[in-house]
């Protein structure tokens, strides 16, 4: 029976891969979970090892001397301030880790390496993509685009696998719904805090993103579904040397989800929530890349001059960073946290800029699952149910009531 090695084992996506593998101890008798910190107790078939992926391959090899496995899941990620730093650091972490496995000799056992990337593959952070996004869409490698660390990681992976006769799989999840202990960087925490404070202030729940995006489509990825996909793709013969979008399989929009969020927290949606966006001092607007990714394909698609090829923007009807710094908001959160015994630092640590971006875009974000389906993957997750489950996990962790 094979063993697995998972890097980023405490992260939103990696942690779930560890749990998905460990569920089936007969098939996966040994799962090596690697990260700098150890945040939770694991099932019996999981062995946690310390590793610092920013160290040299020689140093890592010392930490890895007892670590062997046929399947490697690389879900580690270090966020840096600039895209160039992300390129350098995240590329080096993967490169040095793979080199360390050659130094210990563990590479001999390896059959397949699964690398977790994301929908930034298509430049969804830069503006409107071509929808639905397909794995065969061109990479944005022209010098006019900022460096994309996924391209560096995938190039490193492809080259390494070619040289060592190994197989690879890459995943592209989008807007992940998941939870990891001590990690406040997820949509669900910020949405939950926003709703609780709104309730404490006695207000109706106003969507803080853009009126445009409220009625557009977004495709989400449950961290559980993603883990299930990774484990399936690791051993499925047809998926060798292929990259896959991994999204829930339902089409979602905030016009559908927001009223459910409101009702989950005992609120109602503010009926005229976008009435004051234009004049509101609370709102903000940020322009994205000069041209959106879809402009790259405008010629072939017959979209030259079409409005979708003009610069995309992020509009927040309530700018969430400013909102989280308001005195009345801080006071309301302290009061909620005191009453309910919640973690007070959650307001400060939650990723308001990220949520503002995700809710404020003015374009659809639709990823096709056809490639995975054609190869036999049948997994599906309901986005609202995934969100509700994560609210439950946040509640158990005393971040939400
Ligand atoms: N979360 C999302 O919404 C989302 C969406 C699409 C794509 N993705 C992509 O998915 C991948 C994983 O992201 P994630 O959100 O799961 O990340 P995450 O929650 O921030 O977790 C990162 C993991 O990497 C580990 N790590 C960081 N630096 C390390 C180091 N120097 N040495 C060893 N381990 C290190 C962390 O553990 P320690 O700190 O304990 O070392 C943690 O386990 C990334 O490529 C990300 O871009 C994420």
TrEMBL record:
<feature type="domain" description="PRISE-like Rossmann-fold">
    <location>
        <begin position="52"/>
        <end position="268"/>
    </location>
</feature>
<protein>
    <submittedName>
        <fullName>NAD dependent epimerase/dehydratase family protein</fullName>
    </submittedName>
</protein>
<dbReference type="Pfam" id="PF22917">
    <property type="entry name" value="PRISE"/>
</dbReference>
<dbReference type="InterPro" id="IPR036291">
    <property type="entry name" value="NAD(P)-bd_dom_sf"/>
</dbReference>
<dbReference type="InterPro" id="IPR055222">
    <property type="entry name" value="PRISE-like_Rossmann-fold"/>
</dbReference>
């Amino acid at each position: 029976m094979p063993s697995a090695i998972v890097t980023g084992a405490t992260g939103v996506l990696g942690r779930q891969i560890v749990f998905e593998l460990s569920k089936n101890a007969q098939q996966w008798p040994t799962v090596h979970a690697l990260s700098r910190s150890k945040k939770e107790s694991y099932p019996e078939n999981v062995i946690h090892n310390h590793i610092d992926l920013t160290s040299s391959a020689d140093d890592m090899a010392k930490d890895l001397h007892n670590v062997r496995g046929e399947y490697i899941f690389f879900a580690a990620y270090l966020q840096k301030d600039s895209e160039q730093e992300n390129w350098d650091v995240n590329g080096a972490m993967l490169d040095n880790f793979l080199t360390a496995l050659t130094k210990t000799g563990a590479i001999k056992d390896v059959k397949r390496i699964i690398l977790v990337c994301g929908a930034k593959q298509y430049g969804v952070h830069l503006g409107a993509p071509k929808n639905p996004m397909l794995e065969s869409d061109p990479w944005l490698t022209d010098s006019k685009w900022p460096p994309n660390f996924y391209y560096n990681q995938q190039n490193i992976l492809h080259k390494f696998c070619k040289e060592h006769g190994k197989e690879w799989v890459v995943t592209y999840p989008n807007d992940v719904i998941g939870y990891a202990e001590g990690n406040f960087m997820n949509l669900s925490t910020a949405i939950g805090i926003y709703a609780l404070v709104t309730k404490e202030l006695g207000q109706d729940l106003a969507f803080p993103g853009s009126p445009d995006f409220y009625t557009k489509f977004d495709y989400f990825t449950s961290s559980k579904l993603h883990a299930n996909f990774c484990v399936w793709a690791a051993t499925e013969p047809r998926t060798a040397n292929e990259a896959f979008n991994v999204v829930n399989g339902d089409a979602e929009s905030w016009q559908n989800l927001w009223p459910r969020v409101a009702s989950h927290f005992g609120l109602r949606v503010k009926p005229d929530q976008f009435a004051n966006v234009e004049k509101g001092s609370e709102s903000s607007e940020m322009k994205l890349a000069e041209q959106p990714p879809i402009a790259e394909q405008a010629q072939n698609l017959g979209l030259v001059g079409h409005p979708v090829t003009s610069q995309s923007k992020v509009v927040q009807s309530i700018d969430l960073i400013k909102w989280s710094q308001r005195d009345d908001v801080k006071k309301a959160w302290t009061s909620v946290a005191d009453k309910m015994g919640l973690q007070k630092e959650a307001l400060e640590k939650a990723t308001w800029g990220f949520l503002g971006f995700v809710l404020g875009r003015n374009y659809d974000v639709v990823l096709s699952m056809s490639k995975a389906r054609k190869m036999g993957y049948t997994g599906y997750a309901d986005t609202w149910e995934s969100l509700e489950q994560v609210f439950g996990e946040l509640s158990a962790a005393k971040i939400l009531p």
